[in-house]
Design brief:
Elements lengths: L2 H10 L5 H9 L2 H8 L5 E2 L2 E5 L9 H18 L3 H4 L1 E5 L5 H14 L4 E3 L6 H10 L4 E5 L8 E7 L8 H12 L18 E3 L2 H12 L12 E5 L6 H11 L2 E4 L25 H10 L3 E5 L6 E6 L5 E3 L2 H18 L7 E6 L5 H8 L3 E5 L3 H14 L3 E7 L3 E3 L9 H17 L4 H12 L1 E10 L2 H18 L3 E2 L2 E8 L4 E4 L2 E4 L9 E5 L4 E6 L5 E10 L2 H4 L2 H12 L4
Length: 566
């Protein structure tokens, strides 16, 4: 069936709203093709896409279809799925509440009880609540840090962890056999499931766990904090947290309302400097020492600190991660809490600085594919096998956890620990930049850069495939004049080193390539699992800052030239 034929089915259907039909009618040829040329897919962070009509968009039809699949999967997997039920939550985005209520109804139709909050709640609380009420699964409706035109849908198992590949494949197989989302029908159970509203008890229990990660709660509070939830889900709990901790803090009030249009922020993404514009203005007015921001679903956390000259410097996820690892492990080491099998968990695209710091304290590192679900899954297994003792988990994309009560990245824990760390060093007369410089001098300068290149539509998918094929089969010998000493191919699960080929074990297949260079630097390339873009990661390592700082850009220009992008 052609794109135009698929579009006509939507236009002819009495199920489709006039608003969605108008979008189809006004779409350009390229937009129409993107709406209908494929089905919206699950990636590293679940199903995420633009709002609108068609199988490649987020709408009540695609949400219904995937929820029918999830219901069938849960009934196949858990004998008590109907009674134990599913917890659902959502962020502030357009149609988020509608999608939760739609999904809840579908699950109830299959006889499965559901638990929903009375309003938006953070992703980490959804993870916690799934375990708290002993549910068999969870659903979080969110597009995380993406622009306002997006929404998304993430699924969790009974441990509060997003489904990993071996779990999600049976779900994908079920969804693939459901047929067209527009004509999908099912027969509701005679005894429907019950939809229950979760009480504030869950909020209180979650916040109690957040407080439990503190290392030096009795420290005198000497810093001022500016906080913004970017119109998202941490607005209530984030402000509550700072009040309970006793900090002098100032919320960016214009960004505290759950606005689906993100009217008062230039970007809801803590990775983007534009996200800090209003916070910096307020910080300068009140003389704040620290700026903290979370993304809309409150799993990521970014920061800026006041330098000696009064200006504010934003730290990357890798820089913040390194500081947190040193702060957490040094404190636990001093108290004799580090065990012989203690580990931190990171990803294959995270800076190696954290690994070096951990090793200094006798802590190992486990690296996983991109996607916090792999870290959460490893924590689940370790809880049963005692294979390792979890100390800290993080991704370069601003996500951190400090305990295992939550199986997804948690900005509430991060808000607490970053504020405590900043305050602790302030009591010693240091700012975060000075502490970071100490780490660089001890372990070498690690300069990391991430470049995103967008490839929209069907042609974009083909172009990204060409880029990966080119890099995969050319077996590069050097990049920007620096010798490539090893290549890891996570799609073929092979390692190439000195003309030798060995198996790459311990990872599921993923379309990622990583190049290790002779000078200790590395480069990784992967198509995004949730957005139409290819991500290029670079880490340059050197004992001298001036020698490391320009390397990532040089490497990037060299790689783009190699794949034919000027």
């Amino acid at each position: 069936m052609t794109v135009n034929e698929k579009a006509q089915l939507w236009l002819d259907s009495d199920k489709v709203s006039a608003e969605l039909k108008d979008e189809i009618k006004s779409a350009s040829k390229e937009q129409l093709n993107d709406m209908f040329f494929k089905n919206l897919e699950f990636g590293t962070g679940g199903m995420r896409g633009l709002l609108g009509p068609g199988p490649n968009r987020m709408n009540i039809f695609t949400v219904t279809k995937v929820t029918v699949g999830f219901a069938k999967y849960l009934l196949n997997t858990y004998s008590d799925a109907k009674v134990r039920g599913v917890v659902l939550s959502h962020d502030n985005r357009i149609n988020s509440r509608l999608f939760v209520l739609t999904a809840s109804k579908v699950l109830n139709d299959f006889g499965i009880n559901t638990y929903i909050f009375d309003s938006l709640r953070p992703t980490p609380e959804l993870s916690f609540a799934t375990r708290y009420v002993h549910a068999v699964g969870g659903i979080m409706v969110t597009a995380s840090h993406n622009p306002k035109e997006y929404n998304g849908y993430k699924v969790y198992d009974d441990t509060g962890c997003q489904l990993v590949p071996e779990q999600i494949q049976p779900l994908l197989d079920i969804i693939a056999n459901l047929g067209d989302e527009l004509t999908l029908t099912y027969t509701p159970e005679a005894v429907r499931g019950e939809e229950k509203i979760l009480s504030s008890e869950v909020d209180d229990a979650f916040m109690q766990k957040v407080h439990s990660v503190a290392l030096n709660p009795a420290d005198k509070k000497v810093i001022k904090i500016v906080f913004t939830p970017q119109h998202g889900t941490s607005s209530v709990l984030g402000r509550r947290l700072f009040k309970e901790l006793g900090y002098e803090f100032y919320p960016v009030l214009s960004q505290c309302d759950p606005d689906p249009l993100f009217s008062h922020t230039l970007s809801p993404n803590p990775e983007k400097k534009e996200a800090y514009t209003e916070a910096i203005k307020l910080a300068k007015q009140v003389g704040a020492d620290l700026i903290l921001t979370t993304d809309p679903d409150a799993d990521r956390c970014g920061l800026g600190y006041k330098m000696k000259d009064g200006e504010y410097r934003l730290l990357t996820g890798n820089e913040t991660g390194a500081l947190l690892i040193d702060y957490v492990l040094s404190n636990r080491h001093q108290r004799g809490l580090i065990k012989s099998n203690s580990v931190i968990c990171d990803t294959i695209v995270t800076s190696t600085l954290g690994e070096k710091i951990a090793a200094h304290y006798g802590v190992g590192t486990r690296s996983f594919l991109t996607g916090f679900k792999y870290i959460g899954s490893a924590i689940n297994k370790a809880e049963k096998t005692h294979e390792f003792t979890f100390e800290f988990g993080y991704e370069e994309s601003y996500g951190y956890i400090f305990a295992d009560f939550c199986r997804d990245k948690d900005s509430l824990e991060s808000l607490l620990m970053i504020a405590e760390m900043t305050n602790h060093y302030a009591l010693e007369g240091k700012d975060l930049g000075e502490k970071l410089e100490e780490l660089y001098k001890a372990y070498g300068y690690h300069i990391c850069k991430l470049y995103d290149i967008y490839f929209e539509g069907e042609s974009g998918l083909k172009r990204m495939a060409q880029i990966m094929d080119s890099l995969r089969h050319d077996h590069l010998k050097e990049i920007a004049g620096v010798k490539v000493v090893k290549i890891e191919d996570y799609e073929l699960l092979k390692t190439y080193s000195e003309d030798k080929e060995t198996d790459l074990v311990g990872f599921p297949k993923s379309n990622v390539l990583k190049f290790f260079l002779e000078d200790g630097s590395w480069i990784a390339v992967r198509p995004s699992g949730t957005e139409p873009k290819c991500k290029f990661y670079y880490e340059a390592v050197d004992t001298k800052k001036e020698d490391a700082i320009d390397k990532p850009e040089k490497f990037h220009h060299a790689v783009l030239k190699l794949v034919g992008i000027e």
